[in-house]
Design a protein that fits this description.
Elements: H1 3-18, H2 26-38, H3 44-56, H4 61-64, E1 66-67, E2 74-75, H5 80-90, E3 94-98, E4 105-110, E5 135-137, H6 142-152, E6 156-160, E7 166-171, H7 172-180, E8 195-199, E9 202-206, H8 211-218, H9 230-238, E10 247-250, E11 253-260, E12 265-272
Parallel strand pairs: 2-3, 5-6
Antiparallel strand pairs: 1-7, 3-4, 6-7, 8-9, 9-12, 10-11, 11-12
Helix pairs in contact: 1-2, 2-3
Length: 275
Amino acid sequence: MDENTGKTGFFERIFNKISSDAPENVEEIVQFLKNAAKSGVIDRDTVLLLEKVVAFADLEVRDVMVSRSQMNVLKISDSPKKILDYVLDTAHSRFPVIAGDKDEVLGILHTKDLLRFFNHPEDLDIRQLLREPVFVPESKSLNRLLKEFRDKHIHLAMVIDEYGGVSGLITFEDILEAILGEISDEFDTDEVDNIASIGGGRFRVNAVTEISEFNEFFHTDFAHEDVDTIGGLVISSLERLPERGEKIQLGDWQFAVARVDQRRLYILIVQKIKK
């Protein structure tokens, strides 16, 4: 059966139960879906998902990409130790590797290729591990990019503006989240402890962890009269929302930002600074 025929049949079954008129635009489709939920044809969760699917058709890369300022990158000139430490702090699976600035992307590094070098960083030659970068324009539709990602098994692409400069990056997860909403991973802490050891004296800390809980766990004495959470403490110290990969020192502790978006700080990687 043709895929499009199957999709059309599904919507037709819904529409026929609600109205004899076929929708003529996206707004009418969304309204039909809401009416379907009210009539008990489909449940509310299904409606929300279908609304996102309908809206997805109009989205472009620029709508969901990670902006240039929030990109975590590695520099080809960085020492092996600095590279390995940064990879551990930011906890991503892929990194653009640049030369002088973020417009000079030399390749993409997969962190799984670094595993054998953690005990012998002096043997690391990052140039030997780079993979060819993929570049896509800001105006490319997410529909087309999703198909390209699936067909070519791509998980990350660099986004370029109309002048050829790098304006950001986009991942397979970014595209899926445009449809499904935010996807939880090992650094999302809704269903696990607020503070968890990830090895090497480093801890994954939920940004909404109460300062009192943080102090009790680490035997610290942080306090702030205007905020109650450890994420609020970091933001207050910076006087702004931090960027991914950014580090801040508070007392004897280093806080590295592992997960943040344009509105919220989610996850911090915390470790005590060795004197």
